[in-house]
Amino acid sequence: MKRKLNEDDVPEEVTSTTISKPGSAFDSFGLDARILRGIQKEKFSKPTPVQSRAIPLALEGKDILARSKTGSGKTAAYLIPIIQSTLRRKSEPSYQTCISVLILVPTRELAVQVTKTAESLAAFCGQDIRVENLTRKEDDKVQRARLADFPDILVATPGRVSANLNNEALSLKDLAHLVIDEADLVLSYGYEDDLENIAKAIPKGVQTFLMSATLKTGLEILKGLFCQDPVVLELDEEEKDTGSVSQYVVRCAEDEKFLLLYAIFMLKLIKGKCIVFVGDIDRCYRLKLFLEQFGIKSCVLNSELPVASRLHIVEEFNKNVYEIIIATDESEVLGDEGHKKKRKEDGEEGEEDVQGNGEENIPEQIPENSTELKTSTGNETLNGTKTENSSEPPKKKRKGSRRDRDYGVARGIDFKNVACVLNFDLPTTSKSYTHRIGRTARAGKTGMALSFVIPKELYRKHKPTSFLTTEHDEEVLAKITKHQEKKGNIVQPYHFDMKRLDGFRYRLADALRAVTRIAIREARVRELRQELLKSEKLKRHFEENPSDLHHLRHDGELRAARIQPHLKHVPDYLLPGGSKKAIADDVGFVGIHKTSENRIRKARIYNRARGKGHKVSVGRNTDPLKTFNAKGRGKK
């Protein structure tokens, strides 16, 4: 059978997408054959609503301001027409090498994700499309050299672009396309001055894309700076049936949060991968150490970890290496106020924070439940309180943990095939809740969001597990419920039969007692040292031996808390129904080198048999005359 030739005389593959309805397939947009192959490689079956609406308009050269939920394909919606336009422009005889596309993103993690997607879509374009990520930590000279090579597509944070414009390492005079991804988040991160600087450097007539999950009044600033009569696309109605999140709320006491989480994972009540959101970094390690007591493996993801480690954790999670991630996103938990402070005062130090000297990254003593974090200027706190005009003399700044201000996990990052988002600590705003639960039910799939809520009368009733923001859980839940009802979603109560978990309570108490403040601090220090070693000292080794990176795991035991082996075993009589039928047959990952809990006892017996230590009879054939010690116990 002869295959049909397209306009470039390239035979088309006969697939289900090519025989679908008119206008539903990507080939209806008149795209280059190389881009179609890249789309096929990405396994996009058909355009999503935002892609169907945005791609034709973008190919016509119109400015676009699109609002579409997370996981709806916004990245491909602007990358596909940009690559198409760049290929067409480069085929013209008058074309001169230049940076023609600038993509601005708020976080490093999102920059890596956009770069990978762009490279994958342009995989069959050879050297015609070259993509560079400017957010990587590297020497200024290396960065200048990469910019001097004039990549076609440049992905960066506004701070990095502004800094390179100021030192004349970057020129945008020939820019043709500008994209601001997660535009509302870029504004909330305090990039206003950097954006104004970029707006002065770009020429008139640049095609602009503003992509966001929410359209706020603040976007009028960006429209005024970059857009000229943009087409506004709001796709909430079209995307209602493309995927659904079942939302549940559990009202419980503070210590019962830990009991419920233990029961959920031990009894495998959640099938598939899960992201657990907590309030702060200390809370991450408290939860990880708690789960370690029961042999439940998990990864920690927060702004304190090196960039390379964070990106590798997300990548391995998407490859199904890990099933549980305990994550925190300080900007989301504390609200928008934390990032509205001007970052220029910090001299973009946040770009280098977690990649510097390992000793500088080790946290000092930090209040266990503190959510008020000082910025690097020392004059402002994240809750907006200024101290520089205070009558009290300024205190000596204590060296604390240095966190990456370009970190973000609740927005933009593509976590694949997440079955459940579990809000262990409820966020402080309904907007943050919306972005968190957007990590599941992506690309038309279904998912579940489960949130733990502390009633006011139970707040501070169990001080060791109490957390400050939970005091307002009921007020926040009322706002979340109202906001979700406007979208046609229902937040339903989920009633656990807590009496059936009474048999686990003594185990809960044992595990919580073992996770002390000192253990949490030691766990943070140990994890940070381990990850710095993996990301920095082994960086070149992994570049030369990429297969070794595949075996690097991030869910190992920290062993900062006292290990109690009996907690890992659950007797039948403790299980609901009195049998192990409640637990799925799938036991999950079991390591090749299984360690025995009695290895110390076996070592003692072995040593005694060899004549070391106390002499005991180790078998029937032992000759008592040969083991007799006439000088007395312990003497030779």
Provide a brief overview of the structure:
This protein has 636 residues and is of the alpha/beta class. Helix content is 33%, strand content 11%. The strands form two sheets. Strands 3-4-2-5-6-1-7 form a seven-stranded parallel beta sheet, sandwiched between helices. A seven-stranded parallel beta sheet has the order 10-11-9-12-13-8-14, sandwiched between helices.
Textual characterization of the structure:
Keywords: ATP-binding, Helicase, Hydrolase, Nucleotide-binding, Nucleus, Ribosome biogenesis, RNA-binding. This protein has 636 residues and is α/β, with parallel strands linked by helices. It folds into three domains: 26-234, Rossmann fold (3-Layer(aba) Sandwich), CATH 3.40.50.300; 244-334 and 406-576, P-loop containing nucleotide triphosphate hydrolases (Rossmann fold); 596-636, no CATH class. The protein is 33% helix and 11% strand. It is built from 21 helices and 14 strands. The strands form two sheets. A seven-stranded parallel beta sheet has the order 3-4-2-5-6-1-7, with helices on both faces. Helix 3 packs across helix 4 and helix 14 (430-437) packs across helix 15. The longest helix has 21 residues, at 517-537.
